[in-house]
Amino acid sequence: MTLLNVTDISSAACCAPLEREPLGADEAVALANTMKALADPTRLRLLSIVAASADGEACVCDLIEPVGLSQPTVSHHLKILTNAGFLTRSKRGTWAYYRLVPGALGRVGDVLGA
Amino acid sequence: MTLLNVTDISSAACCAPLEREPLGADEAVALANTMKALADPTRLRLLSIVAASADGEACVCDLIEPVGLSQPTVSHHLKILTNAGFLTRSKRGTWAYYRLVPGALGRVGDVLGA
DNA sequence: CAGATCTATCGAAGGCTGTCAATATCGAAT
DNA sequence: ATTCGATATTGACAGCCTTCGATAGATCTG
């Protein structure tokens, strides 16, 4: 399964700020994989919509219309974000609710030297 | 010329922190383009090597061996980083020196809610 | 159980990306 | 002027990504 190297969970907590010292090859790959999860307009919108949702969570059905893509595509993006450690999934009934992982985005921000 | 939507200079200063409010479609595309420039292991290493270099700058010839790729490929990545607003290029003689744009990485970090 | 609904997976199509070898460009030095 | 050295550009190729329609799985309702 190729699929954007899905399975880099929490690689966000990989290393010192970028400007401190040269990244090793492995660290660079790990950080790049994390950034790839964020390097898509739809996924960025999904994250921001989930973050702004009441109770801090949203089901797939809430996300399809705002981003204007098919349901399979939305599920696909949510899976990538979840595997990258930015979202958690919890199923209640037939609905799947997605929620931000606290601090996950912030850790990436820290590495960029904010 | 497709080439990674080269020409999104300084789109890093695009918007409020991701978790504040839903990203508009245009903002999302701009931010994603900026993130795409960072979503590659080689480019991340190039940034960190330049940052750690004496005098804060490095020429292409200094970067080829550390990343282990061909000279055209290194030039290609440097161009993407420059067009994305993370590096500046200054030519002295036959050498091209690259330098970090102060604050560029930090602004991206801020958007991620660091 | 049957039907309806919500979500995930599969398979395919098209476009984009990273990489290289070859070549062009530009400046320096003989 | 010619040659040499450092970068950038071009052209090509393999692999990956986004997207969709079709389908399967799971859960509630009647």
Automatic annotation (TrEMBL), chains A, B:
<keyword id="KW-0805">Transcription regulation</keyword>
<feature type="domain" description="HTH arsR-type">
    <location>
        <begin position="23"/>
        <end position="114"/>
    </location>
</feature>
<dbReference type="InterPro" id="IPR036388">
    <property type="entry name" value="WH-like_DNA-bd_sf"/>
</dbReference>
<dbReference type="InterPro" id="IPR018334">
    <property type="entry name" value="ArsR_HTH"/>
</dbReference>
<dbReference type="InterPro" id="IPR036390">
    <property type="entry name" value="WH_DNA-bd_sf"/>
</dbReference>
<dbReference type="InterPro" id="IPR001845">
    <property type="entry name" value="HTH_ArsR_DNA-bd_dom"/>
</dbReference>
<dbReference type="InterPro" id="IPR011991">
    <property type="entry name" value="ArsR-like_HTH"/>
</dbReference>
<dbReference type="Pfam" id="PF01022">
    <property type="entry name" value="HTH_5"/>
</dbReference>
<protein>
    <submittedName>
        <fullName>Metalloregulator ArsR/SmtB family transcription factor</fullName>
    </submittedName>
</protein>
<keyword id="KW-0804">Transcription</keyword>
<keyword id="KW-0238">DNA-binding</keyword>
<dbReference type="InterPro" id="IPR051081">
    <property type="entry name" value="HTH_MetalResp_TranReg"/>
</dbReference>
